[in-house]
């Protein structure tokens, strides 16, 4: 870990089922949490359809731009699983049956009594030059080629693949955060918060109104990789919020 | 409605809180459902950070490409709410206080006894030439400029804005779907399903393994805007699934 390096990432969620609304994605949130925990700055997510050209275009746009690219979806055994084909095309490499991947699958299939067939063998097709990402759940591996990490779309398998590749990733400056709850609205706090943000440009201050609560609530989230600055800015924000509470004659929230 | 027209859309989800994992997005799924219900083909979603240049770049990339663009997030009263600024910049127009928006806010603020201040008035800044999108929940409006529809990020407000703008949207060919459940795995069904997909190119066939079920289950989803073709293809897929069940000596699922 280089404590001064900024490590960035993009996620491509590949699948018509997300875009049609049939499946509600949970991999974006899981990947975002994963990146934040490792000090990797997730800069962008794209959800795209199961179309080779769309995948190639999105992949080429983001892999030049960020330290890492993660993809989820489209590596199963059916005709609509075309992620490996698209990745091979984007990198200009062949997509042969990979012996190691085939062996992983055959070992699993032996214990489950599963027949080998052409559809299942699709899952052993890995772009030339790629390393495998172990799949602890259902054996069919993901793979890494260049800075692109190709994972399954099934959330349980995707998360197990993220865990498997975590030790192989460079981690960046760890970003710390402080959350401050205010019992006044964003409109009340917006002015003074903006002034504090201007004073602390290296501490990113976000403001999030809470809906469906019994009283007005705004959550202020401060983030920075500079811990001393973060603590200092948070103290100033707390002071400002206390003043706003006092002005409004409000009991502070817990 | 022109029954032969293909209407496409992209969604931009704007917000650091989604990329950090702090907030788990639900607007993608809601927008996907909304589009599918109206026969609008949601082609792409991007989640991007609260940075003006990122928003402008993404907006300009997608607004040329699709019939409609929807955005969620970044239209509140605090300094980190910069979506209106970025949209005005992308369209090269000014961002004045809009009288109609100001009146909507003032009417609401009168009933709630809320003080007008600079932060709150940020929410009345609307790009020149834009129409307002009514916000039934908290009064601060969204807006439409060109083919871009700018909405709040708070899910409840976002959904109310989607409902408000639904009657203003052109709707496309309605896509129908049939779901067929198979009690065999994707690897078993992949070959014959791929053959049927090749026979019916205008019926999109997706295959989704079910995890965490007590028996192996694959859900096959067929989609088409041609109802007769969809029914015909679905009958063929059902027949194929019944054969696979029979081969494996399996009782069909409900």
UniProtKB/TrEMBL annotation, chains A, B:
PANTHER family: NICOTINAMIDE-NUCLEOTIDE AMIDOHYDROLASE PNCC (PTHR13939), NMN AMIDOHYDROLASE-LIKE PROTEIN YFAY (PTHR13939:SF0). It comes from the Bacteria. SMART domains: MoCF_biosynth (SM00852). This is Molybdopterin-binding protein. Residues 10-172 form the MoaB/Mog domain. Gene3D superfamilies: MoaB/Mog-like domain.
């Amino acid at each position: 870990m280089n404590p001064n390096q900024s490590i960035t990432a993009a996620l491509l969620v590949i699948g018509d089922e997300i875009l049609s609304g049939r499946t509600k994605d949970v991999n974006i949130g899981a990947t975002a949490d994963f990146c934040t925990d490792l000090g990797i700055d997730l800069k962008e997510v794209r959800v795209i359809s199961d179309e080779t050209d769309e995948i190639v275009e999105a992949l080429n746009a983001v892999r030049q731009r960020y330290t890492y690219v993660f993809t989820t979806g489209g590596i199963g055994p059916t005709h609509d699983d075309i992620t490996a084909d698209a990745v091979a095309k984007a990198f200009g490499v062949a997509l042969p049956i990979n012996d190691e991947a085939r062996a992983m699958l055959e070992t699993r299939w032996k214990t489950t009594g599963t027949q080998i067939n052409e559809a299942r063998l699709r899952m052993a097709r890995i772009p030339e030059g790629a390393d495998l990402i172990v799949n602890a759940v259902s054996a069919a591996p993901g793979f890494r080629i260049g800075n692109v990490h190709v994972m399954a779309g099934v959330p349980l398998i995707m998360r197990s693949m993220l865990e498997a590749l975590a030790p192989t990733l460079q981690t960046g400056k760890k970003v710390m955060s402080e959350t401050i709850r205010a019992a006044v609205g964003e409109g009340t706090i917006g002015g003074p918060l903006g002034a504090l943000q201007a004073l602390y440009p290296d501490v990113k201050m976000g403001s999030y109104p809470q809906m469906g609560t019994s009283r007005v609530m705004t959550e202020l989230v401060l983030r920075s990789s500079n811990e001393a600055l973060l603590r200092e800015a948070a103290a100033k924000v707390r002071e400002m919020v206390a003043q706003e509470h006092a002005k409004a004659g409000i009991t502070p929230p817990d």
